[in-house]
Design goal:
The protein is α/β, with parallel strands linked by helices. The protein has twelve helices and 18 strands. Bound molecules: pyridoxal-5'-phosphate. The site of pyridoxal-5'-phosphate (PLP) has 12 residues, from loops.
C-alpha cells in the first residue's frame, strides 16, 4: 500500500525512483555507446535492490569500497565484485574467505603486497595513478613495471589488468574540463597497457572511472570497463560542476522545521551533520559555504550544521512562509556520504512511498 510522504518521520532519506531509473538507463546507454562494460561502484547506494537494477541494465558486476560491503552483496547473491580500495596483506585471509563464495577482484599498487598475493587464487588489478595523485603507481615509473611484472607472472593469482580512478574530475567546472580528465585517464591506461604488452605481459582489462569523467568522455578506446557510482543519484556537487541537471538528483533528505523565531534571519531543521554529512561540496567554485540546497527554494541553503540541527538561511521573504512542523527536502552535497548515515531508503514515486529498501552500511 502506498503511504503519503507526510507520514514519514524525519529526517528521512527519500529515493526518487523515476529519477533513479532514468539515471541507470542513461548511463547504461552511454557505456554501450562508448564501447565499455559497466561495473558500477555500489558504495554510493549500498543497496542490493539497486545493484540488481544495475545488473539488469547490463552491468558485468559491482565495485565495493569495503569488505563489509562485499560481504553484504555476496550475501545478497552477487557473484562478481571488485574491492577498489588497495588491499594490504592483513586483509588477505578475509578476502580469500569471501573469494570462496564469489569472484573477488582486489587492487594493489604495492610490490610487497603483489608478492604476498602470489598463491592467493585472487583476481588482482594493478592500481594506476591517472593524475588524481591519491593511490596508484606512476605508470611512467620503473616501479610500476616492477609491480606489473610480479602480477603478470600470475603465480597463483589472476592478473586482471589496470585500474584507475579519475577523482580529479571533481575539481572541474565544465563538461569540457571533465572530458579532458577522462582523456588523461584513458591515455594513462592505454599507454601503460601498450608498454606492458610490449614487455610480454598480458593485460586483460583496463578499468576506469568516476561519474563526472564518464559523463563527459567522448572516446574510451583502450578502456574495457568503467566504474561510475555517484550517477545513480548524483547530488548538489554534480549539479554545480555541470555534470547533471538539478532534476537528475535522485535522493533528498526530508526534514522538518523545528525552530523559527518571529522575524528571525534563519530557521532550524532536524537535519544536521548526521542527516546530511559535513561535506561542503565543490570548494574550488568559491561559493558561500553550504551543506545542501533546499529543493524548490533556490534562495535558501543549509548554511551550518551541528550534530542534529541544520540552520537554513536566506532572504526573510523566502523564510517567512515556513512554520514549525513544515517540511522541506534537502538536496545533499555528496549523496554517497549522506546515504551512509541512513538504514533505509523511502522509495518514492509521484509523492507517494512505494517501498522501503535497506541500506547495507555495516562496517
Ligand atoms: C576507486 C574508485 N572507483 C570508482 C569510484 C566511483 O566514482 P564516482 O563516485 O565519481 O562515481 C570511486 C569513488 O570514489 C572510487 O574511489
Amino acid at each position: 500500500m502506498a503511504r503519503r510522504a507526510l507520514t514519514i518521520e524525519t529526517p528521512a532519506l527519500l529515493l526518487h525512483l523515476d529519477v533513479v531509473e532514468r539515471n541507470l538507463e542513461r548511463m547504461a546507454q552511454r557505456a554501450r555507446r562508448l564501447g565499455v562494460a559497466l561495473r558500477p561502484h555500489a558504495k554510493t547506494h549500498k543497496c542490493p535492490e539497486l545493484g540488481r537494477r544495475q545488473l539488469a541494465h547490463g552491468a558485468i558486476g559491482l565495485t565495493v569500497a569495503t569488505l563489509a560491503e562485499a560481504e553484504a552483496f555476496v550475501r545478497a547473491g552477487f557473484t562478481d565484485l571488485t574491492w577498489a580500495l588497495p588491499i594490504d596483506p592483513t586483509h588477505l585471509p578475509h578476502a580469500r574467505r569471501l573469494a570462496r563464495r564469489a569472484t573477488l577482484r582486489v587492487v594493489t599498487d604495492d610490490l610487497d603486497t603483489a608478492r604476498a598475493l602470489a598463491g592467493s587464487g585472487l583476481h588482482v588489478w594493478l592500481k594506476v595513478d591517472c593524475g588524481y595523485h591519491r593511490a596508484g603507481v606512476d605508470p611512467e615509473s620503473p616501479y610500476a613495471m616492477e609491480v606489473a611484472r610480479e602480477l603478470g607472472r600470475e603465480d597463483g593469482l589472476t592478473f586482471d589488468g589496470l585500474l584507475s580512478h579519475s577523482g580529479h574530475a571533481y575539481h572541474t567546472r565544465t563538461q569540457a574540463e571533465a572530458a579532458a580528465v577522462a582523456e588523461q585517464e584513458r591515455l594513462a591506461l592505454s599507454r601503460f597497457t601498450q608498454r606492458l604488452r610490449t614487455a610480454g605481459i598480458t593485460v586483460r582489462g583496463a578499468s576506469a572511472g568516476s561519474t563526472p569523467a564518464l559523463s563527459a568522455a567522448t572516446d574510451l578506446t583502450g578502456v574495457t570497463e568503467a566504474r561510475p557510482g555517484n550517477y545513480v543519484f548524483y547530488d548538489r556537487t554534480q549539479v554545480l560542476i555541470g555534470c547533471c541537471e538539478p532534476d537528475d538528483v535522485g535522493v533528498s533528505v526530508l526534514a522538518t522545521v523545528v525552530s523559527h523565531q518571529p522575524g528571525g534571519d534563519h530557521l532550524v531543521i532536524d537535519a544536521g551533520a548526521l542527516a546530511l554529512s559535513k561535506d561542503t561540496g565543490p570548494d574550488h567554485l568559491d561559493l558561500p559555504i553550504s551543506f545542501g540546497a533546499v529543493r524548490g527554494h533556490p534562495s535558501l541553503t543549509v548554511a551550518s550544521v551541528s550534530q542534529e540541527h541544520g540552520v537554513v538561511r536566506g532572504p526573510p521573504s523566502s523564510l517567512e512562509q515556513f512554520r514549525v512542523g513544515d517540511r522541506m527536502e534537502i538536496v545533499p552535497n555528496h549523496s554517497c556520504l549522506t546515504v551512509a548515515h541512513y538504514d533505509q531508503y523511502h522509495v518514492m514515486r509521484d509523492g507517494r512511498e512505494l517501498d522501503r529498501w535497506r541500506i547495507e552500511r555495516g562496517r
